[in-house]
Amino acid sequence: MILETSVNRRVLVAKPRGYCAGVDRAVQAVEKALERYGAPIYVRKQIVHNTHVVKTLEERGAIFVEETGEVPEGAIVVFSAHGVAPAVHEEAAARSLRTIDATCPLVTKVHNEAKRFAAGDYDILLIGHEGHEEVEGTAGEAPRHIQLVDGLDGVDRVQVRDPERLVWLSQTTLSVDETTETVTRLRERFPNLIDPPSDDICYATQNRQVAVKEIARESQLVIVVGSTNSSNSKRLVEVALDAGADASYLVDNASYIQDEWLEGVTTVGVTSGASVPEELVEAVLARLAGHGFGDVQEVESVAENVRFALPHELRRDLRPATA
Ligand code: 10G
Ligand code: SF4
User: Fold this and answer.
1) I want to staple 248 with a disulfide (CB 3.0 to 4.6 A). Which of 140, 165, 222, 310 is the partner?
2) What is this structure's pTM?
3) Which of 144, 139, 115 is nearest to 127 (CA)?
């Protein structure tokens, strides 16, 4: 009998994977705020959708709340990377909160597009997932002009005032292929539908999907590290399956890997969502190595070097005092 551990078992690790520039900035914003102002620092919603990141920041003194109403008057609150509606800024101001806005600049870009098209009295079809914080924030910019289209199923329900003044925008973390299908279907109904001025699905989402496709084609199993509420991480599982992997699972950390997933498998693909710290991927690789997957190859599809400056409120306060 040939033991599975003696078979040539390998791991293909997608690159790019893990933290995007917006997540890196948001997590650093909370860390720097804790260093600069001291604990506690309040954070509205999970700063990013990752249980490990949230727990680590809680241990350092961050307090996560659902709404600004839970933050004591005058305290500091950080808004999450997914963005907030203008009403949330107003509530915070009314409670005299000191705010640090960690909304990713690429989400702010979509907010600005929404405001601009609403000012021009366009109807806006926002493709995204119902109930997701990013969609709630973007829709809050122009609630009377925006209607949500949640995937292909939502297309038939769309009602517009003037099909000649119609634009679509999207959540930043959607599946590129699925969104293309949704837009095609929308355009069948509304041939003069206007495209966003530039891609709303961000560079990081797109690159991680390109990278997972490349490894999925050669893998029987693709493990995606990410939390269950992480939209972009969940999309990576779907993209891996569409690209040809026999199986793909989302795991919050290495302990979620089940031994039976590895039975008869010789090539495992590994990637991680945009909110996932690299140490969680390293732990997955260590667990796989324990099952004979010692040959680890990184497969780079796209080079990435995007970085964003910290939120301006923090940059101002972190600037060294001039004499
Ligand atoms: O993929 P979603 O939007 O659920 O968020 P995440 O926190 O898991 O990843 C980072 C993406 C954002 C902050 C949304 S712009
Ligand atoms: Fe920004 Fe894209 Fe990361 Fe969202 S996934 S935080 S839009 S870079």
Assistant:
1) 222
2) 0.96
3) 139
